Structure formats: structure tokens, C-alpha cells
């Protein structure tokens, strides 16, 4: 945890972890120690302190390290350097994740040199000034570079945590966690951080009814005209408003939902790939394979082998599935 730690993402990150443990009832998932640079309580941006259990030495045995954000109104570069030195305790190959402005610490440690990364859009000017060697993308929710992940503002911390749950334990568990936390089950990392008109005019129709209808009819060959009709809008108005509300085009959103539904079926059934493709609205098995591989980098067979009958699936197993196919 960092000095002047921003509290807002904390409940969401902790709740994501707690819900995962509750659903899985797995004691191996319960170890989530908090650590600071010296093991002392850390003051939050809301001006009260949080007690921690450990100093940096606990990082030696961690398999995932999450670096939270800090207040950026007057950041001291030396503080970032000090925090970055703590990451030297982290063993090689350990997954390191930053939320919001925590990316500054990873950059100060050199972990982002020459790599894609993101942070809160409001901090991008300073980030680029201090760390020009990082390929910063301020227009996405999170970036997954394998052993290093960075996410944007507070709510994007939920997205990256759900992404990690999905990678480690499968889509079914991740969707249970999301429903338990009452948040969207999947917002892909490339989705925009900043939606220009996130709240539609109260006097205007929105696209929520069309989205709900689409989710109930994914097995059908849905066209943009079908969705627009369910919102009583013209094609052009619907496409514009959909993008304003969701941050994705209708077509891209539909593919996202179909891939996620396919992942659930791959985990929970023995249906052939062609049958699953038909149930989620893809033209055939080839189309499902292409879209699944584009989304997560594995084939349906590899995904099923990774997440069927392996309740404590590790990241190493998932990585092995990628190599096998």
C-alpha cells in the first residue's frame, strides 16, 4: 500500500477477492496480506490510516502483487523511487498489477519500459513527462502484458480483478463474482476509459432494453436493425447512443457477449464446439474459434481443457494450454 493511498478502489478490490473465496469455498484463496514500505500504518487520501500486517518481505512469497493508487495532486518523484525499490522483493515471474496511478510505481521500477500500459486519464500528462519510455495508452480500461498488468481509474480496478479471476478460475466463477458484486461481468481491456456521454438524457430512450433483449437472443443472427427496432430508434441514432452509453459499437459488444457465453458453455457442458457456436450466435465452429482466440489467445479445446474439472487451476496451467495449441 502506498502513502496517501486512494481508498476508493479498496472496497471493490477486497470485495472481488472475498466474493471469489465465498463462491469457491477454497481456503487457498484466502491469503491476501497487506504490505507497506515499512510495515507501519499507511495514511489514505481521505486522511485516516489503515493498519497493515506486513512489511515488504511478504512480497517474496506472493504470486500476485497489487499496487494501489495514490494521490497525484503533488506527487514526489523520490517517493515513487522508494516505493519502486520495494518491488525488488518480488520474485521473478510474479504477477504484478497496478490500479489507477499505481502504474507510476511500476514505471519507476522500470517494469513498464518499452511496454504498453495505462493509468487514469487525468494523470497521463505527468506520466508521459516522467516516463516517456513507456508506451502509454490512456484510452483503455486495462492492459494485460502477461506478468505485468495496469488498469485505469477506480472502477477499472474491478475490471482487471475480474479479468484475473477469469484467467485463473474461468468464466463461470468470474461471472458469479461479478453478479455477487452487482457489476458488469466483462468489460474488455480495450474498452474506452472515458465515455463522452455516460448518462443519457432522462427524456430520451436508452439502449438498455435492446441490450437485455439481445442477451436473451444471442443464438439468433441479430442485426443492428433488430436492436434499433427494440429501442424505437433509427439505425444511426441507435448506433451513436449505444456507443455513448457502452463505449463500444453494437457489433463489437455482441461479439464480446457471445464469446463470454461460449466460455461458460465450454466450462459447464460437454457440447461440441459447433453446437456451442450455434447456441451463442456464431456462424459455426470456425467463427467461434477465431473470435475466442482473438479475445483470449486460446482455442476452444485448450480453454475447455484448462477450466473443466480443475477447481484450483493455476496460471501456469492456463499458460500451458496456450502452448499446447
When the domains are counted, the total is 3
Quaternary structure annotation: single chain
Question: Would you tell me the structural class of the helices and strands?
Answer: alpha/beta
Quickly give the CATH architecture of the largest domain: 3-Layer(aba) Sandwich
Q: What's the tally of helices?
A: 14
How are the strands of the biggest sheet laid out side by side?
3-4-8-7
InterPro entries: Class_I_gatase-like, DJ-1/PfpI, Homeodomain-like_sf, HTH_AraC, INH-QAR
Protein name: Helix-turn-helix domain-containing protein
Keywords: Transcription, Transcription regulation
Pfam families: DJ-1_PfpI, HTH_18
Distinctive features:
325 residues, alpha/beta, Rossmann fold, Arc Repressor Mutant, subunit A, four-stranded mixed sheet, two-stranded antiparallel sheet, 7% strand
Kindly summarize this structure in a few lines.
With 325 residues, the protein is α/β, with parallel strands linked by helices. The chain has helices at 9-24, 77-86, 103-108, 124-130, 156-169, 171-181, 208-216, 224-230, 235-246, 250-268, 273-280, 285-296, 300-307, 315-324; strands at residues 42-43, 49-50, 64-67, 95-98, 116-117, 135-136, 142-144, 148-151. It has three domains: 9-181, Rossmann fold; 208-247; 251-324, Homeodomain-like (Arc Repressor Mutant, subunit A, Orthogonal Bundle).
Characterise the protein shown here.
With 325 residues, this protein is an alpha/beta fold. The chain has three domains: 9-181, Class I glutamine amidotransferase (GATase) domain (Rossmann fold, 3-Layer(aba) Sandwich), CATH 3.40.50.880; 208-247; 251-324, Homeodomain-like (Arc Repressor Mutant, subunit A), CATH 1.10.10. It has 14 helices and eight strands. The chain has helices at 9-24, 77-86, 103-108, 124-130, 156-169, 171-181, 208-216, 224-230, 235-246, 250-268, 273-280, 285-296, 300-307, 315-324, and strands at residues 42-43, 49-50, 64-67, 95-98, 116-117, 135-136, 142-144, 148-151. A four-stranded mixed sheet has the order 3-4-8-7. A two-stranded antiparallel ribbon has the order 1-2. Helix 11 (273-280) crosses helix 12 and helix 13 runs antiparallel to helix 14 (315-324). The longest helix is centred in the C-terminal third of the chain and has 19 residues, at 250-268. It is globular. The model is unreliable at 194-203 and 309-325 (pLDDT under 50). Residues 208-306 form the HTH araC/xylS-type domain. GO terms for molecular function: DNA-binding transcription factor activity; sequence-specific DNA binding.
Amino acid at each position: 500500500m502506498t502513502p496517501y493511498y486512494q481508498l476508493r478502489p479498496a472496497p471493490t478490490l477486497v470485495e472481488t477477492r472475498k466474493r471469489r473465496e465465498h463462491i469457491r469455498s477454497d481456503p487457498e484463496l484466502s491469503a491476501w496480506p497487506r504490505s507497506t514500505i515499512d510495515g507501519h500504518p499507511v495514511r489514505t487520501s481521505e486522511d485516516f490510516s489503515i493498519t497493515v500486517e506486513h512489511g515488504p518481505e511478504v512480497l517474496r512469497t506472493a504470486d500476485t502483487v497489487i499496487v494501489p493508487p495514490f494521490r497525484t495532486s503533488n506527487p514526489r518523484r523520490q517517493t515513487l523511487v522508494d516505493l519502486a525499490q520495494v518491488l525488488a522483493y518480488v520474485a521473478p515471474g510474479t504477477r504484478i498489477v497496478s490500479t489507477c496511478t499505481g502504474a507510476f510505481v511500476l514505471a519507476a521500477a522500470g517494469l513498464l519500459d518499452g511496454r504498453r500500459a495505462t493509468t487514469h486519464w487525468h494523470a497521463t500528462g505527468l506520466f508521459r513527462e516522467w516516463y516517456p519510455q513507456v508506451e502509454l495508452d490512456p484510452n483503455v480500461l486495462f492492459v494485460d502484458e502477461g506478468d505485468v498488468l495496469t488498469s485505469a481509474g477506480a472502477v477499472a480496478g474491478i475490471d482487471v480483478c475480474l479479468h484475473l479471476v477469469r484467467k485463473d478460475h474461468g468464466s463461470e466463477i468470474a461471472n458469479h463474482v461479478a453478479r455477487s458484486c452487482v457489476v458488469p461481468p466483462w468489460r474488455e481491456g480495450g474498452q474506452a476509459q472515458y465515455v463522452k456521454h455516460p448518462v443519457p438524457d432522462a427524456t430520451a430512450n436508452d439502449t438498455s432494453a435492446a441490450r437485455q433483449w439481445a442477451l436473451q437472443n444471442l443464438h439468433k443472427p441479430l442485426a443492428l436493425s433488430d436492436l434499433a427496432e427494440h429501442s424505437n430508434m433509427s439505425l444511426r441514432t441507435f448506433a451513436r447512443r449505444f456507443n455513448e452509453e457502452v463505449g463500444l459499437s453494437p457489433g463489437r459488444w455482441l461479439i464480446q457477449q457471445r464469446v463470454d457465453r461460449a466460455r461458460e458453455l465450454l466450462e459447464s457442458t460437454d457440447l461440441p464446439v459447433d453446437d456451442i457456436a450455434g447456441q451463442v450466435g456464431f456462424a459455426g465452429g470456425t467463427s467461434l474459434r477465431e473470435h475466442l482466440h482473438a479475445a483470449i489467445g486460446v482455442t476452444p479445446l485448450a480453454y475447455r481443457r484448462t477450466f473443466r474439472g480443475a477447481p484450483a487451476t493455476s496460471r501456469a496451467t492456463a499458460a500451458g494450454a496456450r502452448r499446447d495449441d
